[in-house]
Amino acid sequence: MTQPAPEPVLTVRDLHKSFTLHTIDGRTVTSLHGVDLEIGRGEHVALAGPSGAGKSSFLRCVHRSYLPDSGSIVLHTDAGPVELTELSDRAMARLRGRELGYVSQFLSAPPRTAPLEVVAASARRRGMDRAEAREAAADALRRLALDEALWDVDCSVLSGGERQRVNIAAGTVHPPRLLLLDEPVSALDPANRERALELIASLSASGVAVLAVFHDLDAMHRLATRVVRFADGHIAETGSATDVLGDAAA
């Protein structure tokens, strides 16, 4: 019996994005050529493909770090569908706080801000009160095994792996409707990578839709309900991890 399609969380239609290379000769390079993609509640969609294929450009257009040249990006919220390409920067910032998480390789934290406060601030933006947010932040940092002695130090003194764990904790605390991941475990040692992947895997059960870029084939096999392979700014193939990537052990 065919399972019903999950409730849509993100719908992207005919997305185009190009860049002008001002530092070279002013030529225009097209990164995305009319991409269509839909992601449902509880799905984990991994973007695969070589460097320059358009994966990160697509992710950043959804986050609105990049404004696309044309096309539609709709986030389906409890209040109804929201066209992200039409929002003002201020409205987009508010929506990111509540509905849309983004975890990159690098932590961007305000100066003189400690890990506990970074994660708690993310939880408050998602609707928790101050006390609840602080408790949720502590739980998230414990789950990722960040030493409690580091919770109140300036994030700038943390190692790369420690910063990445703070970033994951902030992205997943009181999880948003849609979580974007851009190589989130690249700096982690094996034990902490395992903790992070277990945390990310658990999000599907709570209905979080995940859109991720990994270069780690094992992570894609473990996490992805669907893999979308990009090539030259197009979606070249969509299917299970095994269908698109082959056997992880190969």
TrEMBL record:
It comes from the Bacteria. InterPro entries: AAA+_ATPase (IPR003593), ABC_transporter-like_ATP-bd (IPR003439), ABC_transporter-like_CS (IPR017871), ABC_transpr_LolD-like (IPR015854), P-loop_NTPase (IPR027417). Keywords: ATP-binding, Nucleotide-binding. Pfam families: ABC_tran. SMART domains: AAA (SM00382). One of its GO terms (molecular function) is ATP binding. PROSITE patterns: ABC_TRANSPORTER_1, ABC_TRANSPORTER_2. Gene3D superfamilies: P-loop containing nucleotide triphosphate hydrolases (3.40.50.300). Residues 10-250 form the ABC transporter domain. PANTHER family: IMPORT ATP-BINDING PROTEIN. This is ATP-binding cassette domain-containing protein. It comes from Rhodococcus chondri.
